[in-house]
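One record is given unchanged without comment:
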Amino acid sequence: MTEPDPSSPAPIPAATTPASAPFEVRAHPGVLRLWYWQAIVVVALMSLPALLISGLAFGIYAMVAVVLVAVLLVRAWHRYQVRYVGRFRCRLLDDGLLLDRGVYWHSETFVPRERVQHTEVDQGPFARHFGIATLKVHTAGSKVGEIDIDGLAHDDAVALRDRLLDRQGRDAA
């Protein structure tokens, strides 16, 4: 029997190898910029009628008040999104997907692998510009039939989908 070489590193136990470690994804860093611009567009479209009515009926001061409220809404929504992104965690464990999110109402969702029916990776035109995607996980046998995981980098969404469906080493095309 040969003795182990003392200069060689000790083997890594199977429980700590990267293959058995949880795969974790976080929100894409550019998602805050995307959501900020989306909030600006939504608030601008929603405040346009109020801006026109207040300008016609009450004058310039009412228009300034509407613009000020719109700016405050965008700022408040952006602060909420910053906290949301800081809290967001998505981990793929050996037995399923664990999603931890929420600011005021904290939500922790676990989807066992055997409940996953199919998945989708979606990108709208603006999200595609920022490299951001949404992973939709469709499940069976639960009251929530679809889970949307927003704000992921496109590559992370595809990698998470492939690992969730155990598609490593296969051609995804």
